[in-house]
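Issue 218. Parser rejects a valid record. Input:
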Amino acid sequence: MHDLINYLNSPHLVAAFQNIFGIEPIFEAKSKSADEPALKIKKRSPLKSSQNNDKNGEKCQKNHKRTFSNPKKLVNITDHNHLIANTLIHNRFWYYFFHLGAAMGNEIFYCLFFPFWFWNVDGAIARKVAFMWGIFMYVGQATKDILCMPRPASPPVVKLEERYLAEYGFPSTHAMVSAGLPISVLVLSYSRYNIDLHISIGIVVAFCSWVSCSRLYLGMHSILDVVAGVLYSILVLMVMIPILEPIDHFILEFNYSPLIVFTVGYLLCHFYPSVRQWSTARGDTVIIIGSVIGFSIGSYLNNKLGLLHKPDEPPLYDIHFPNAFGYFLGVLRTILGLLLVLCTRQLFKIFLLKFLCFICKLDHRNPDSKKQKKIELPYNYLTYFALGVNIAFTFPFLFRLLGIERDYSFTEL
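Output the parser choked on:
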């Protein structure tokens, strides 16, 4: 077993995977004198071509300086020899394909996925899946910062994603969510709607494989990280699915559940494992927990105000697609809602940052201020809590006032 773990954790497997899909890293040693400024990362697309590349293509390939793919210089924080990887991308399709797959586990995907489900599909499934999402991410991120297992070594791996370089690698939270989120949707949908199980399982496997392989392509995780992430999410599902319905009932029905849920969420963020150096892990976790708590309390408000009631018939329900006007209303709700989400996010971020920095006597213009726990925690938690409440409660209520809500949007207990 020990040999198998070491084999799956080998960076050479990741490097081989990258090479198969057209990534060619060329590592070069760089001397650094005492008075030389720190090396900076150039945020230039490795696929951006120039006119000079066409003229000098053969010469550039020989010297390994620049090809049609315009190599991107990356600095690996785990590298102690100041190596530079001039990355040559030989296949543009896989580059964009796997970058898009990686985006399926980032903030932009969640900002589109959950509002879309709340406003256009099924709020009951959305709030339960969101709760599971919070569990996956908190458990996964906390495990990372407790075990402190590094990402694949470079060389031989080249890392193509700069944002998460400072985070640890085991387990892959992208893999956890790519498995746990669609499985949660499948399990909850299968208990509520008449769906084709075989097609649904195929979609789950394809989505999980796409996102997980993207982490290998970008050099951010070993095969061990990815496999452990998938298995970890399945373990969490086995524990949480049987108690998910009672938890959902408690949140919706108990009079003091908003106070309890809000407090528990904040305490989870406050007692998040301490990190040796700042990374995006804690901030991302706080963002997710704040959003989930907002979804939960927004759903509670819908229920307590009498806006939610049980459907006339018990499940299972047939899936009915809307007509042309229904699609138009769906697009209108999505565009209007996302614009309001963007405005809410910006207003809360600006106000809370200035207010918290004023209270703590810090300069809000200093980027390091947001990295301090006393600022980062309430800043992210309250901002995304407000977004969650608006997505689950305020904006659907606004849609109802405007006469553009779903016909069954308030029959989702």
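Fixed in the parser; the record now loads. Confidence is low (pLDDT under 50) at residues 33-46, 48-84.
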